[in-house]
Amino acid sequence: MSAQPLPYRIGYGEDAHRLAAGRPLILGGVEITGAERGPVAHSDGDAALHTLSDALLSGLALGDIGQYFPDTDPKWAGLNSADILRRCLELVRERGYAPANAALVVTLDTPKLGSKRAEIAQRIAGLLGLDSSEVGVSFKTSEGLAPDHIQARATILLVRL
Ligand SMILES: Nc1ccn([C@@H]2O[C@H](COP(=O)(O)O)[C@@H](O)[C@H]2O)c(=O)n1
Ligand SMILES: C[C@@]1(CO)OP(=O)(O)OP(=O)(O)OC[C@H]1O
In the chain, where are the structural domains located? Predict the structure, then answer.
């Protein structure tokens, strides 16, 4: 006998990329102009959107984005990470769930990102079909422990429609 569908499900995601000169820094679909380094990645390297995409999938035990967009497939080179998020959201909605709120933490030593918080929250909210008041965006430094990496973590609450 199958279990009764839960009214709520929590999803959690993480991502990390090495930083290198000559790569754009894109976070939540927003390009951080003037950044000296950006993530080394097969796609556009948007760690915030990868993390949120994995959180969507994990909430419904649907695996992770590497299964849907393998980094060994040249088809996904330079992929716009908003397309990854849209596909993950579609998989969630097909199963009768939708995001209720999201909480994202980005760990990056430089540059400072506080001035971009509202724009990033707004962009993510638009992609997830939420109001920006339902998208928490926190920034942390690694206190010099991981100066050559960007890391992101996110939770998303999914509600059954
Ligand atoms: N890339 C970053 C990292 C952090 N911030 C802001 O700095 C404050 C202190 O961060 P700690 O990691 O030292 O606790 C905090 O208010 C962050 O929002 C930032 O803007 N950009
Ligand atoms: C997005 C994918 C695919 O382009 O590659 P990357 O941009 O390297 O990013 P990662 O966070 O390692 O996630 C999964 C990959 O399959």
Answer: 8-160
What is the rounded radius of gyration, in angstroms, for the C-alpha atoms of the chain? 15
Flag whether pLDDT at 1 surpasses 80.
no
Beta strands in 32-115 (DSSP E): 37-39, 97-107
Q: How far apart are alpha carbons 136 and 108 in whole angstroms?
A: 17
Residue ranges lining ligand 1, Cβ < 6 Å: 108, 112-114, 139-141
DSSP 23: S
Class of domain 8-160: alpha beta
Look up residue 52 and give its amino acid.
L
Is this model's pTM higher than 0.80 or not?
A: yes
CA of 39, nearest ligand number = 2
ipTM of this predicted structure = 0.93
Helix (H) or strand (E) holding 83: helix 81-94
What Cα–Cα distance (Å) separates residue 70 from each residue in 14, 42, 66, 78, 123? 16, 9, 5, 12, 25
